[in-house]
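Box 3.1. Reading complex inputs
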Amino acid sequence: MTAVTLHNVSKTYRSYGHVWDALWEVVTKTRRHREWVALHPLTLEIFNGQVVGIIGTNGAGKSTLLKLIAGTLTPSSGEIRVNGQVAALLELGAGFHPDMSGRDNVYLGASVMGLPASQVDRLYDEIVAFAGLEGFMDQPVKTYSSGMYMRLAFAVATAVDPDVLILDETLSVGDGAFARKSFDRIIGYKTAGKTILFCSHNLYQVEAICNRVIWLDHGRMVMDGEPGRVTSAYAEFLKSISGEVLGADPPIASSSPTENSVARLTKIEVSVDGSVGYELRVQTGRTDLTVSIGFESDSALPPPSIGVTIVGSNGWAVTSASTANDGLILERQEDGSGEVRVTFPRLALLKGNYWVNVFLLCESGIHIYDRAEQVAQLRVVQKGLEQGVVTLPREWSFAKPRCDSPQARRRTNGLGPTRLPELRH
Amino acid sequence: MALHFSISTVSRLPGLTVAGLLGPFQVLVRERDLLCLLVRRDIVGRTSGTLLGGAWMLAQPALQVLAFWFLLDFVLRIKTPGKVAFVDYFLTSMLPWLFISEVLTRSLSVMSEFSALYKRTVFPLKVLPLLPALVAGLIYLPVFAVVVGFLTGLQGAIKAVLILIALLVWLLPVGYLLAVFGCFVKDLRQIFPFLLNMMLYLTPIMYLPEMLPPEFQSLLSVNPFADAIAVIHGVLQSMPVTSGNVLRPMLCWVLLLAPTWVLFHRAEPHMREVL
């Protein structure tokens, strides 16, 4: 069944020289504005249970599309039909009245979402408990910290058990334990077969969570389909214009975990051939790279997972390894702490500078608990003139062997002179 | 082209008028929970932190009434020809005027006051212009009923309640109109107290209609508020009422229903996204 249908939906933003022009236009219906197109006419069908990721550079129209579906923007043309209850976490806290108490804002927010007061009465305690704001509900929300504000907004928006959930650049809200809780709730919607629309610059998360990806560029749909195919095409596109849109896939800022974090990295040691350091000299195909990672975690939660990425000087990930992806479950002490080591034997990177980033993630490898970026710099040197970023094992063969030998081929791993038998003449 | 436009406009007028008449009531019913919450919060917010709390809602207009009564009856001892004492006349028209003035003034600012609620959200905007009328109604209805009851008896009190409700409904289209204009034309909020004062002087509240010099008498017939006040006196104090006093405000109301509703509807996306 269709959850969301868009038929030729477009959005044009208007700007007026003066507010009088806007009034004149409203009264007389004569055009007094300049406009720019944020979304060209788009026809789209999203089916129940789909988790749709929307990707694109800044200004591609991702947020506009989500806001149109959420109903917070009015389309300039076309028709949008949404079946079922929609919850949108687009601008957290929008719709809260700063002078009203937390309690009133819960009722107000729920009422705007179409919930009758009687149903809010039933949900109220759960909302407050989920937000963890017992004892603060009679204070005006303007006295809340931004974290409390976001927690309440999230709890209200998701309490209604929406059929369609719309998320902008976020798979979790707040920090520490609440981030995990909100992430679990969102993943719970996915498991329950709800429809989720999610826009992000983080292609890894999009690929991990979505089963359909839409790529928008300059307000037009470029591609719509299977996540791996669309994200890799988009990544190619980003590489081709990386000069223009520096920061389109922004490096994730290093964050220091807060006191109430449910898991954090405690130790990171990068070594090559046993010698630990920050600036490390690596020889292509000869050096073993080892990353030792210590972590602490809440033992009540499933064991976290570890991800290590090696990025090039242009910020693009050259390779990655994660325990979740490799099907490993981390072993840890009773107190939730543990240590894990990953080794990349005979590192196949070609000459250049690379950085090592380490991530501590949830058990499914999507939600990031903690991260440490640029924990080591690898200065790779190579012998020979091989080009590119990585050397791959390979086999050469001749289309027409010059002799009658069926073995007329030469196998090499690209790392030096072959040890295979010489070609016979 | 122009002829076609005017014909199509006129042919759509009856339907739009019905929409303008029923629209606010449909919003009232559909969003009753939201409105209850906003009205309650408004009333609580006005008096929170005070010793008397909610009692101030009644005490404030009641004190105003006492002050007028003291000034007019005890200090100035104004006597006017006719069977109705001036203080009775004054109170019967001043309280509805205070109600009207409260509704109109708040309607101008209600959209910006609650902009945090509807900017970038799906908040039903049409709820907001109902708020000033409902809050002012709750404040002035009890006081007006008690004062009129005190002056004319229980039957008068019931009539007073009905009059204020009718006045509330009569003001709704103007409320929607001012809500839009207040949002677009910020200057209006600066000039509005002056306009309201002028309207008060041009409406026979602090004087009887016959006290106005003959050359200004015609002004009363183009002022719908003067007509409304005349009808109120007619109903409550059996003073003379002409058919014009009833028809003129009715006509204004009916003619405003369609344009104000359509205007608000058209302005909604602008209020949400542009302003």
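In summary: The longest helix of chain A spans residues 176-191.
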